[in-house]
Amino acid sequence: MSSRSGDGRRRTRRVTALLVVLIGVLAGCSNAPxxxxxxxxxxxxxxxxPVTSAVGADATRSRAAELQSGLTHxxxxxxxxxxxARAAVRDTDRAEAGAALEEASTxxxxxxxxxxxxxxxxxxxxxxxxxxxxxxxxxxxRTGSDQDRAAALxxxxxxxxxxxxxxxxxVPRLPEAQVRERLDGDLTAQLAVRGEDxxxxxxxxxxxxxxxxxxxxxxxxxxxxxxxxxSRAATLRADLTGLLxxxxxxxxxxxxxxxxxxxxxxxxxxNGADLTALLATAYPSLPAxxxxxxxxxxxxxxxxxxxxxxxxxxxxxxxxAELGAELARHVRGLPASATATGFTPLLTALAVAVxxxxxPGGHAALRRASATVPVxxxxxxxxxxxxxxxx
Length: 391
What we know:
- The protein is an all-alpha fold.
- Helices cover 73% and strands 0% of the residues.
- It contains 17 helices and no strands.
- It has helices spanning 4-26, 57-60, 63-87, 94-113, 119-143, 146-170, 176-191, 198-206, 209-223, 232-252, 261-280, 287-306, 310-317, 319-328, 336-356, 362-370, 373-388.
- Helix 10 (232-252) packs antiparallel against helix 11 (261-280).
- The longest helix is centred in the N-terminal third of the chain and has 25 residues, at 63-87.
- The protein starts with a helix and ends with a helix.
């Protein structure tokens, strides 16, 4: 649907947006550049100013919170993009799915390597090796002999192990055994995404991502003196980011994906139930009304995927106002108009992605929709944390 130069401009805009966040996260790490040779352990460095405990909205905007949320967004997205690329390994949209996977890996390398001089390239090499081995392994499941399948799986697991080792070399504060165990479990969950219950398995793999992000964020925050990681406010923002990212990816899978449509719709409703449960920890009276509004939104997305009519699109685009009114009933300091403004770009891009479905450019449309999630999740997390005085 777009030219190579257009794809390049979109990728540049997305990487630029990520780096804007990174500058805010990492600018305070040190006045001097990190000149640690690639693959070597970086020395401990003091922060430029004492890190004080933040409360409320400020706690969701701390450097550690920004990092945890950004990693969660990228890791959840990468789970879904990997599944789509594996499913499309022999289909006509293989090139576009592969481009989406390349962008996901590049974004993760950018984020992980931002504070370690020379680390980005070695991280990207390791991620690309995992991607390549993963697609080869998916291909052998369809056409290879038992021996070929075993060899491809072993190659993929070795690549994942090297990725864990690379991350550990870059971030010396990370516990080596824990990183390896975490990434091995992530790979096992990803390999299980197949069969009639493929979307349920995809959600199981996706739900591992926030814990992996929290582990990585804690190590980087300790190594770069970003302040305490894993606070209640930071985890709320990361969890909201993860669930909204998953919502976008599952909605995009409604049309054009090889997994069965009913599975995607059920997974979307399950995602909404998890989002409701997360907000209910702060607002016990929220579930009844919020579930009704959110489930109606999911039903409209499902209908839009089956029939991209103007009327259904209009209904989907009306959702930010409905969501804003519902949240305003519970969250003090979050006007309905603020939620509507924050979520409109997400819903507009999501409607385009759902309508695009399996057509050329569908993967690119989904990436654009996913890129809008961090702003919306940050808005809600800040308001809830401020209202409930989360630290």
